[in-house]
Amino acid sequence: MSRANPLILVIDDDPSIRQTLTRELALAGYDALAAADGVEGKALYEERRPDLVITDLAMPRADGHAVIAAVRRMDEATPILVLSVRGEEEDKVRALDLGADDYVTKPFSLRELLARVRTQLRRSGAGAAPEVLRFPDLEIDLARRAVTQDGREVRLTPTEFAILELLAGQAGRPITLRQIIATVWKGAPATTADTVRVHVGSLRRKLEPEPANPRYIGTEPWVGYRFLAEPEEG
Amino acid sequence: MKLQDPIGRWGSLAPWVAMPLALALVTFVGHWAGANAPTIGSIYLVAVLGLAAWGGWAVGATASLAAMLCFNYFFLPPTGTLTIAEPANWVALISFLIASTFASRLVATARREAAEAQRRRQEVEILYELSFALFAVSQRPGVLGEAAARTLRAIGADSGLLLLGDTDSSMETASTVGEPVETEEAALREARESRRLVERGDLVYVPLEVGGTLHGVLVARGTSAPRTVLEPAGRLLGLAVERERLLAEAAHLEAMRESDTLKTSLLRAVSHDLRTPLTTMRLEIESLERQLEGHPQARASVRGLSLEQERLSRRIDNLLSLARLEGGVARPHPEPVPPASLFRAARESLALILAGRPVEALVDPRCPDLWADPSLTLEALVNLLENAARATPPDRPIEIAAGPAPQGVWIEVRDRGPGLPAGVRRLLESPRDPRRTAESGDSASGGLGLRIVQGLVEANGGALALLDRPGGGTIARLTLPAAPEPEEIEI
């Protein structure tokens, strides 16, 4: 689908948020449409196939989780940003597990939201995954399964490499513990959050200049981890 | 149904009276018919068996002996004497005695066993009917009174009362059936302590024990039911009492659960309703800032608005968190939190307030992760940092630091402010009750905020201490549990 400007669908039951968000997104150079609840949102998504969806979670009729599930049934790739509320962390984690790509917490700043929108659009428009992921001072060669930091090779175990590949391959996106277990351990039933923490801990010791103040692998409270470094272009 | 004892030890008097008549009748008929000795013997045997079946073993044995004497006297030659001429007749007479004694013994035993089986059947029927009556009734007020009445009726008592409780002081009458009954304190205590049936005059005290727990005592008057009925009846009534208690408990728990659900959904609604306008405000403020490019004065006002909007957001967060914790609808969910992530998140939350202000973050490399609820801990730290920013002149740095403590992790927020007002310190040392603080309008600067920090940190199993900083200023020190070191896994 070729459009001059990316099309963004905003789904929120509060009219003032809908209005402000669509106006600000338009000012930032996006085309924006709005829906007042999940049912309307799903219909608009199907009709217009936007490039990105921003959805609230608590809404009358179909809620945000239903929207995420419906969008994921129709399309795997469209980025979905969730507007979450503090104190409802379980809802947020559930949204991510259902396939949402990122979240901001109300009251969020416009700057923060636009930054997340840009990251998501860039990721979805990046096309086929590159064979080598490049970050400042860090290179991950997916074909050779080798990691180079400041020109030196870092030796990782297969599990550590798999975790790094998952996180760095979606840099900037929060990855839940459940997603890590599902991808790296193929959902092996004995794998617990602690298992993941042990491997991430040893990955940090090998990779981070200051493991207590991580530069690459950030802890996302309640959720899991997020790769913090920005990929280098090219 | 009333239980009867079909056979006493000696039976009734009737078989004893009937015995001589029956033997006389057989003797007379034998003479009259001129029957021979073997025929007469078998007729006597029939009479003896009939008497044994009716009157039991003692009647049967006596009748055997008497029949043998009559047989000898009237029919075995020489007749009219108790002597016997022919040795063959001796054999016949002794055979008769042995046969009639054994047969009457067998008949009497069979009769007694049939009667015993009948009695047991009746007992089982009584208990079955009672259990059905007790457990078929649905839960409603007064159901225990009805259960007691049904039990008393089943055991054939004309009146009685149900006492619940297991000690002298806790025992109280739950229901009275029929005429008032005067209970005896000592008998009641004996039944309760021995957990056994106690009989006193015309009253029976039945302890209601189920699985080692005593639920009360049933006092029955005028029952003739045996122990084998009274004891299980007591257990059945005990079960009914226990069932009522469990049903009442379940109803109470259900009510509490509903009230928690209500609180949770109320808090959710309030939280959503408060944060939505705050979000719009924030978006509009940012939009205004952009539009006011080139109007420095107006931009300064908007910046002030923005700071206040953020402060309002934090206060709402604080109040909602406290309401959740104190309402018992949210328990902290601890997980390992690296202090550095916490510091980064806190600085991001206070981006505006800390803008252009030096903040030094120091994490000891040996510092373990915290074991705490990340949101609540972040909230506590943000409050402390906000207080420090308010107290410290804009050009002086604020320090946040973390390191290992003997029992966990310490986190300090160090400012160069004027030090802590005495009122605030007193507030923290007084018994914690945030409502009192709010009601008394104690406005000691930062007092309520610190009180909230204290509440949040204590909910996480930690503590807050305020210390004077050498060289001027205050140190707010949080001590929190450290995350358990995950066991090394073979990789």
CATH homologous superfamily assignment of the largest domain in chain A: Response regulator
- Biggest β-sheet strands, sense, barrel of chain A: 5 strands, parallel
Structural class of chain A: alpha/beta
CA(first)-CA(last) distance of chain A: 24 Å
CATH class assignment of the largest domain in chain A = Alpha Beta
Q: Calculate the mean pLDDT score of chain B and round it.
A: 82
Which pair of chains forms the biggest interface, and how many residues does each contribute?
A-B, 41 and 46 residues
User: Number of helical segments of chain B?
Assistant: 14
Q: What coarse outline of chain B follows from CA principal-axis ratios?
A: rod-shaped
What is the helix/strand order of chain A? EHEHEHEHEHEEEEHEHHEE
**Cross-sheet strand order for the largest sheet of chain B:** 2-1-5-4-3
Query: Could you tell me the mean pLDDT of chain A?
Result: 88
Largest sheet, strands/sense/barrel of chain B: 5 strands, antiparallel
Outline type of chain A: globular
E-strand count of chain B: 12
CATH topology value of the largest domain in chain B: Heat Shock Protein 90
Helix percentage of chain A: 40-55%
Radius of gyration of chain B: 47 Å
Enumerate how many helices of chain A there are, as a single number: 8
Question: What does this 3D model show about the protein?
Answer:
The complex is a heterodimer of chains A (234) and B (491). Chain A is an alpha/beta fold and 234 residues long. Chain A has two domains: 7-124, Rossmann fold (3-Layer(aba) Sandwich); 132-227, Winged helix-like DNA-binding domain superfamily/Winged helix DNA-binding domain (Arc Repressor Mutant, subunit A). Chain A is 41% helix and 22% strand. Chain A contains eight helices and twelve strands. The model of chain A has no long low-confidence stretch (mean pLDDT 88). With 491 residues, chain B is an alpha+beta fold. Chain B has 14 helices and twelve strands. Chain B has helices at residues 14-33, 37-55, 57-75, 87-136, 143-154, 185-194, 227-291, 296-326, 339-349, 351-354, 374-391, 422-429, 434-439, 447-459; strands at residues 159-164, 172-177, 198-200, 203-210, 213-221, 335-337, 359-363, 370-372, 398-405, 408-414, 463-468, 474-480. The chains are: A alpha/beta (234), B alpha+beta (491). The A-B interface holds A 14, 16-17, 20-21, 23-24, 27, 58, 83, 85-89, 106-111, 157, 159-160, 193-195, 197-199, 201-202, 210-214, 218-219, 221-222 and B 267-268, 271-272, 275-284, 286-287, 309, 313, 317, 320-321, 324, 330, 333, 335-341, 344-345, 361, 363-365, 367, 374-375, 378, 486-489, 491.
